[in-house]
Structures
1.
Amino acid sequence: MTEFGFDTLQIHAGARPDPATGARQVPIYQTTAYVFRDADHAAALFNLQEVGYIYSRLTNPTVAALGERLAALEGGVGAICTSSGHAAQIMALYPLMGPGKNIVSSTRLYGGTITQFTQVFKRFGWSTNFVDTDDLAAVEAAIDENTRAIFCETIANPGGYVTDIPALAKIADKHGIPLVVDNTTATPYLAKPIEMGATLVVHSTTKYLTGNGTVTGGAIIDSGKFNWSNGKFPSLSEPEPAYHGLKFHETFGALAYTFFGIAIGLRDLGMTMNPQAAHYTLMGIETLSLRMDKHVANAQKVAAWLEKHPAVEAVTYPGLDSSPYKERAQRLLPKGAGALFTVALKGGYEACVKLVDSLELFSHVANLGDARSLVIHSASTTHRQLTPEQQKAAGAAPNLVRLSIGIENADDIIADLDQALAKASA
Ligand SMILES: *Cc1c(COP(=O)(O)O)cnc(C)c1O
């Protein structure tokens, strides 16, 4: 289906009339298990000699339709859908890692991801070398013989920073390790990390892909381009004891990572997306390009207005001339720099809290990428568990408020900010 344009793929990829009923929309296959034709059929499925449905912890037709759609939109060969964005991150790294292994990661990340990479990893014997990804020499210096991936976000949460994915991809290639890109805040409509050289793309489908704040979910999209037999990834290249010594890369080639993610990752870790969630996300994706164009147009207008407001010290939107990432955003995100950014208030922490409490149209929530405009004071919420240094490095300093601009009328969004800023600076 890849010969079609994005608007066509977002509606049709992965979906076909239901073979049993002719249903045009993807049915919600609300079932746990699937009847085997006979004992031989069951054995072939369990041996991975035949592809088919066994049990919904591994695969489900509704979830598979979403995986196929996401793979088409990102330009990958396959996808693994997960129960949340955080599950997708763990699941993405699980086939690559082992005790004593590390990843090199950007410091500019979603707050929960920083916590996962520092606290949770320790319990697996994994570790993270955090670096400023604008310093390419520092990225190279952080890679050692135990590094198994480089990790970054396209537009780094809480907004304003655009990662130079092609530059990081070059370094990853040179060292024989995959580049894993969290493309949640850009979506495949605004950015295609695989075309820029990424090996794996991860998503919190909770955000723009679903687009209406209804369900949590995640996904990993596999470019199918990495050589897993370079000696660093035994899970994918060496005999797998849980499948009678099957070698995933040798057997499945470009689909090795996807098959491993489902046959081992989902089967044994169980971070599975449910078919109801897949349904909501499939619905959301049908209008992704329309929504993203509106998100971007609104964000551009609101950011430009905010920048001129006397109570505002700075606005980090990469679509503004004042942004140090304007040129990079135009080069890597030609359709727009997303709809997530931070505003620094002259009144500091107190003014930020007052602003958040005074906004009426905006919802004060720990979410982003909703049709609704959202606001949060990162330092006192999502990035609260971090040290002041980590908060600053992550772009979540105490005088910053994060805005996720929705698809309402831009004038109404601006009017709400206007009345709240008047109260915050009174
Ligand atoms: C929300 C988010 C996550 C975590 O996703 P969940 O679905 O909430 O688990 C990871 N990365 C980014 C960039 C996010 O915005």
2.
Amino acid sequence: MQLSTAFSSFLLLSSHALSQSIGYNCNPHCINPTIPTTNRNLTFGRHYAVLNLDLIGLVDSIANSTAGSAFINSTASWIDFIHAQNPPPLSIFSRVAFSGSRKPELGPKSPFTKVAASVTLAESQIYPAFKVDEQAGDVVLNKSRYYAGWGNPLETILRAQQIDTVILSGLTTSGVILNTVYTLYNLDYKVYVIANNTIQPPGNNAPEVYNAILEGIIPSLPADVITVEQARDAVKRSGPAIY
Ligand SMILES: *[C@@H]1O[C@H](CO)[C@@H](O)[C@H](O)[C@H]1NC(C)=O
Ligand SMILES: *[C@@H]1O[C@H](CO)[C@@H](O)[C@H](O)[C@H]1NC(C)=O
Ligand SMILES: *[C@@H]1O[C@H](CO)[C@@H](O)[C@H](O)[C@H]1NC(C)=O
Ligand SMILES: *[C@@H]1O[C@H](CO)[C@@H](O)[C@H](O)[C@H]1NC(C)=O
Ligand SMILES: *[C@@H]1O[C@H](CO)[C@@H](O)[C@H](O)[C@H]1NC(C)=O
């Protein structure tokens, strides 16, 4: 597997390759969570935040595949479940968006320019299946590179709200998820990725990349990969969220 290839072109999708789209529908096999499903004691504590990353127009490209619709349903249901908590914890959404129509964050020599050049203003909106709840205090941040906190107040918000644990959903697995796991891990957060709620769009050895990240790379940090069922159970076991 060539990770360098995987790192360079995830946002570029072709609809003819939809059938290869890899999401969490146990295809080619079920991802092994890092925490055994027999453990009934996982909790996120009280200072946790839910990160919903790059759920933007890109989602449309995978929406018609089996894996894509499973991903959308699982992630949308998770977001609704979080909003239904009393009180709701902090939810932060990221989108690829720029300070103006000239996209000044993208320079002629920035490697990310190739990736983001095709993201129009319309495509940078949160995909309609995913609800942003202003009343619940949800935050939507613009970002201009892979990492969810690039060029925005993500870290300021997490620190100010005394967050110690983050639970990640989003696409792509090799882009925003992998980059954000690494950076927040380095910043001392306890990081969980929900396997059902991330997807690797077709092309560039997507199945191998997806499996290697969720079963090899993230567990080796170590950070945790869990199922959406484990995440829901953990939320029920966690204290009322402080936000
Ligand atoms: C959670 O449960 C498992 C098995 O039931 C046990 O091995 C582990 O020590 C427990 N962890 C905590 C933090 O209690
Ligand atoms: C997915 O299906 C919908 C409704 O059938 C259609 O409008 C949309 O263009 C399709 N998207 C892709 C990427 O094929
Ligand atoms: C999430 O993944 C697990 C397999 O580990 C599967 O049993 C479960 O059905 C999936 N949940 C959803 C909502 O797709
Ligand atoms: C997920 O799918 C189930 C079964 O098809 C449906 O009842 C539910 O409304 C869907 N949830 C969301 C948030 O799309
Ligand atoms: C976020 O991106 C939008 C364009 O989609 C832009 O209008 C807005 O000014 C940006 N916000 C910030 C804080 O940069």
3.
Amino acid sequence: MSREWLMHTYADPPVTFVRGSGSALYDRDGRRYLDFVSGLAVTSLGHAHPAVAAAVAEQAKTLCHVSNLYGNELAPEVAATIDRLIGGGTTHAGGQVFFCNSGAEANECALKLARRWGMGRHVVVSTWGSFHGRTLATLAATGQLAKHEPFVPLPEGFRHVPYDDLAALEHALDDTAVAVLVEPVQGEGGVVVPSSDYLSGVRRLCSERNALLMLDEVQTGLGRTGAWFAFQRHQLQPDVVTMAKALGNGMPVGACWARSEVAAAFRPGDHATTFGGQPLAMAAARATLAVMEAENVCERAVSAGASLRERLGALPGVTGVRGEGLLLAATLRAARAEEVAREALRRGLLVNPVRPDALRFAPSLLVSVAELDECAAILGEALAAVMGDA
Ligand SMILES: *Cc1c(COP(=O)(O)O)cnc(C)c1O
């Protein structure tokens, strides 16, 4: 089928998939590929997880959508689960959730909530190299000028500081600033892990200046880094947490959580969405979170992440491995990540060249040791093919 009627926002795809199962994807010819991209950290339980598929199929036959004019039984239950996971898994954090359909929408909710809460103070500080979405406001928060340029003027009220730089943040938090929006690990920016005391320093500065700490956990959330949320490795309490990618294991679901005093700034009518929180999406989220808890995905991400890190670090041509849990990037001796990813794809492995000199790995959190071995074997061949032994 020709792609003639699709807007040309994406590069021409190198392969078209028709089916998936666990860590495997299949093209039309039945060829198998090992997926270490997971739809950009979305299918954290692998493709076509039977429990999620059954829940979605059952809900599709029961009730897909009623709008937020009416109640449904699933959204309150999923919100309660998210609040408990924000609290670490066993105790509730004591906040509320707004459901939406994507990461950008989750961040839009956070940005609007900050303005409502700030009552006049409205500047949101975010970091260079960050990624928060492609809507105009989340693009303005995104710290990448090349992505801004074609779309100026952007909404006002955004300020950027270098990532992992507390002095710059302190300087930026003047009395117009209402919030800091920051990723615990920069994902699209190249899997950049800040210093171990950075997030707690951001928390301290936000508290001193009465600004909200809003964590964008769209990529890092829900077990990916080895904790339910990446902030939980730092003993701090955020005011707002956004999530999306893995929440529906492939069904589009986003959520913005805020602690109660902050969430209370929204009154009925302030913010809304047609699809957000609908039964079909919530059935996917409920099943996804239930499987995640039953499978102890946090522990699995820690142990599989350590194994993958070891395998990647031993490959010739790899100069280092960074990241947390199963969100990893391998840096290469030469800026040839795109060629290496292309060679890996030819050999049946999906990896993402997140930077010119770095490959990103975000496999299923249920990945097996055999699949980690297979990834390392294929990647070793691809690296040798592109970089030789020189
Ligand atoms: C992917 C991503 C987003 C945007 O999510 P969409 O669903 O594409 O709108 C926002 N923030 C982070 C950290 C992301 O990784």
4.
Amino acid sequence: MDFRKFGLFIWLVGVSCVSLWFYSNFPKFCIFCENSQDEVLPKENFRRTRGDFLQLPDIDCQENPPFLVLLVTSSYNDINTRMAIRQTWGQERTVAGKRLVTFFLLGSTVNLGQEADIAAESQKYKDIIQKNFTDTYYNLTLKTMMGVEWIHRFCYQSSFVMKTDTDVFVNVFYLTELLLRKNRTTRFFTGFLKLHEYPIRNRESKWYVSREEYPGKTYPPFCSGTGYVLSTDIASQIYHVSKSILFIKLEDVFIGLCLDKLKIRPEELHSEQTFFPEKITFSVSLFKKIVLCHKVKPSELLRYWNRLVAAYHGGVP
Ligand SMILES: *[C@@H]1O[C@H](CO)[C@@H](O)[C@H](O)[C@H]1NC(C)=O
Ligand SMILES: *[C@@H]1O[C@H](CO)[C@@H](O)[C@H](O)[C@H]1NC(C)=O
Ligand SMILES: *[C@@H]1O[C@H](CO)[C@@H](O)[C@H](O)[C@H]1NC(C)=O
């Protein structure tokens, strides 16, 4: 081997090593790695690759699995509400020895400034799950399924998942107490039950669904999208079965269609009503015995939360 050939050889080896190192550390720059990775890697590894997520929260569910993961559908403009949730029910805490974590589900916008804001917020709080789909009300099903996929890939070791919204008050203490008391760890789905709903064919309605989108006369049982809770084992089942379900923009109905296919029927968490998909008037005694209520503004959220926690006298359950 003459000197020049040897030099070229060394140069090629060097370039290869640097490329390998670079792409294994920054896979998002690799234009041909991402697609093939999902198929080639064994299942456990597939679950932990970044996939097409733009933002991921900082948690290792294998190392320290949470009991309950709260996933909150949110969008760029909700920043004040996200801050209020981070300071109240969404703060990471331990209840009755069980770890609770909260993450926000976001789509994306074409506005690069807003995207940079989201990236910065994600860097700071490490609680954002984001994919590249247009963030609109009609894409709520995609947002929910992104959360389900995230659980399936990254946090299948948790015990329960709650999907809820930003304008919701969640009494995480009572929810944890009821889940522990119920002692159901598999095939469990609960919330505000909607057992006999049917498609609204009035075009003026926010919930209008055309016959093309959903030809059926009635919906299968589902739970109000304001907040529902599932045992984590069914998250992967929903993820898999969702691929064979006709897409419908109403995310709670879509989940109901998945459950129907899996032959899982939503059940009550408690003999008394604890999920309130409407606004209810605050009182400490009432809010101690609810799981959630709807239509709560950020300022109300902070006020209600402080009063609730004060009532527990720091001796939080
Ligand atoms: C998101 O998708 C759009 C259109 O599909 C594309 O132009 C854009 O580059 C994508 N953004 C990122 C961050 O991947
Ligand atoms: C949903 O997101 C997809 C992917 O970004 C986009 O093409 C579509 O227009 C969105 N749908 C609506 C109704 O906004
Ligand atoms: C919870 O259920 C399991 C069986 O599913 C049972 O072995 C256990 O004793 C139950 N625990 C309580 C506290 O009821």
